[in-house]
Amino acid sequence: xxxxxxxxxxxxxxxxxxxxxLLAADISPIYPGAHISGSAVTVSVPPADNWMIHVAxxxxxxxxxxxxxxxxxxxxxxxxxxxxxxxxxRGVRGLVIDAGCRDVAELRRMxxxxxxxxxxxxxxVKETLGDVNVAVVCAGQxxxxxxxxxxxxxxxxxxxxxxxxxxxxxxxxxxxxxxRSRERxxxxxxxxxxxxxxxxxxxxxxxxxxx
Length: 211
Description:
Elements: H1 10-16, E1 28-29, E2 36-45, H2 51-57, E3 64-70, E4 77-79, H3 81-89, E5 94-101, H4 104-110, E6 114-119, E7 131-132, E8 136-138, E9 141-143, E10 148-152, E11 155-159, H5 164-186, H6 191-194, H7 198-204
Parallel strand pairs: 2-3, 3-5, 4-5, 5-6
Antiparallel strand pairs: 1-6, 2-7, 2-10, 8-9, 10-11
Helix pairs in contact: 1-5
């Protein structure tokens, strides 16, 4: 089910589930071109403390995406090349974090994708406990363990686990519809006609003036 989402972009998934599930716009990829789908392993962390990410590594497996949410706003660099090496070895496909990451050049070289709020070299401590695999709010969206996470150059979208099959069907239907529209555009038709907009525009009061 998770792998089925890999062929669809974030925008398609977002639209297919009635424009829900999209993380805040400031969560962006640290380098372009990455596109992943995976199963969420969630981590709730204190501000500027990455201890629980180390705990979470043990819970990660093939096909997972690590989703990290601080309990209060933080721009610290929670995650870098060493943690990426640890989770990549376990088959983790990427990281989504509502905070900072660092070692960007090394992460790009490793081809380990990260979507973060910022890039920051500011270090973290290991002093306070948090939680792993609990419901978290990450960049404005509720994420539960096992939810589907899809991320690409357009951002990150979360699909609730129990709705994944329905949303996946919606993605397929949307792609088929867009493929038909694309062919009509290439044939020179206008979107006003392909999408049947003219009557709705007229009802709203749109008028064309001669000359």
